[in-house]
Amino acid sequence: MSKELDADQVAGNGLLDRRVFLRQGGGIIGAVGAAVGLAGYSRPVEAETLVVPEWTKKPGALFEPYTQPSKYETKVARGPIPPSPYNGIGPGSVRAPLQHLEGMITPNGVHYERSHNGVPDIDPAGHRLLIHGLVKKPLVFTLDALSRYPMTSRISFVECAGNSGGMYAEKPAEGTAQSLHGLVSCAEWTGVPLAMLLEEAGVDPSAKWLVAEGADAAAMSRSVPIEKVMDDALVALYQNGERIRPANGYPMRLLLPGWQGNMNVKWLRRIKLLREPAQTKDETSKYSLLLKEGKVAQFHFPLDAKSVITKPSPGVNMTSPGLYEISGIAWSGNGKITKVEVSADGGKSWAEAALSGPVLSKAITRFRLPWRWSGGPAVLQSRAIDETGYVQPTREKLIGLRGSRSQYHCNLITSWGVAANGEVKHVYA
Amino acid sequence: MFTRSLAFTAALLVSVAANAAETPNLGTPITEAEAKAWDLSILPNGEGLPPGRGSVQQGELIYEQKCQGCHAEKGAGTPADKLVGGQGTLNGDVPPVKTVGSYWPYATTLFDYIRRAMPLAEPQSLTADEVYALSAYILNLNGIVGARATMDAKSLPKVKMPNRDKFFVVYPGRFP
Q1: CATH number at residue A407
Q2: Is A272 a domain residue?
Q3: Which domain holds residue A342?
Q4: Predicted TM-score (pTM) of this structure
Q5: What digits encode the pLDDT tens for the residues A229-245?
């Protein structure tokens, strides 16, 4: 390792200044930057003889109405598919392949799914949205009617409040970024502000909450405070430019940016304005936090700041010593991510990562940081900080506050242990 | 001229006000009575509970026919959620057993949830009497109501759940 490289090390165990790669692009050419070059980057061992490949020597396939990913990308898939103990029906969830994705947007085909009794087969012509309860004029909307309303788009993450629940366990669970943290995804959602529809129905001043209900076989329902609805709730009709996928709520879902995924009711069919919460099964017996001494924290809605490194991560191992880019995702249900810090020595020292824009409130933010891996053992961690000043907690801190039996809202710092052979495993540090 | 200009300004203001409030208004009005066909929500005060009644004994028979397959005998659980027991497991370090008896804060949630979502293969197939009876049976299994209890729109909201006072509301505050 040259002296010039040492100058770029900003934290222990080989973490380099986040601007190192930028210099390569000609953006900031300085004496140090120029000297860094790509020295030490692992290159193919020897040049191969270039041949003209077969696919270049014959015409390719013609047009398809809706394309699919390359057949070589089968690992980019939702999983694990849970077994059904109820003869092929019932509740469950399936996770997004975080370690195989880049950027901030989750492709529609691999968006995570939590469903409580399967995905209903909804004919959009027969679907209705009912708004009633404490309103002057109860209303029923068809999809065609809603499609004529002015639309709003926003990029927002949706995360199941049960995501990462395994991190409360006493011993580190074996798994990948997907199996441990894959109940989060991020998409551009487009639809009608719910506030506009409520205005048309005329909300009674006594209405403080509403209960939203799905048209699925669980008629899944959650209570939502009216302030949140007036702030940024959408009746979303589109996901990344196309109609919402059936698994994510076709033909319409409630979008409550930054709040428990379960509240973003899919297959939305009914909204009832109420004075008080309905105390449904999913807001009492589930999605509440059991604390020390048996107290239960209910209606903790936003998902606090969180991050995870996706590259490297279990299954996305290191190959040979040299220069790498650490890449990961961060998000907060309370606003924008302002900073992500990365450690390669188990939290002893930290380096600030580069945030890959756009950095949007309540959206996934990609972070990156150059790392020169010496080939020795390392423990990689990331911690997110959001615009409210909240810092993603260590495992010790979070469990100290809540105990280890809360099950939900687990946002503690994840540690990936890198072994000398390059293998990456989930560890507690 | 002054009058005309004033009138024009007034007209403009009216039109701006009208524009500010203008939305497509494409919802079809419906009466609350008509909406009832879809209204499944039951509030903790009993609002929404339909007429009907059911006893613990009736509930036991329905449970054996329609629920036991997944929730096991007397609500012992697996593969579906355990419905009874767990009292005393919510403190300390033992793994918590969260059931209707040990955890649920409101009895009305039983009616709301069973009617909308159970049985898994045939949701919304039970009559109001059957849902009252199943609620009574599950409450009795947990020792919350007696063996001769009957549940209806009056009695169910009055049932005090043992874990009710352990719940506290975080919103609109923040939680560590």
Answers
A1: 2.60.40.650
A2: yes
A3: 1-40+288-429
A4: 0.93
A5: 999 999 999 999 999 99
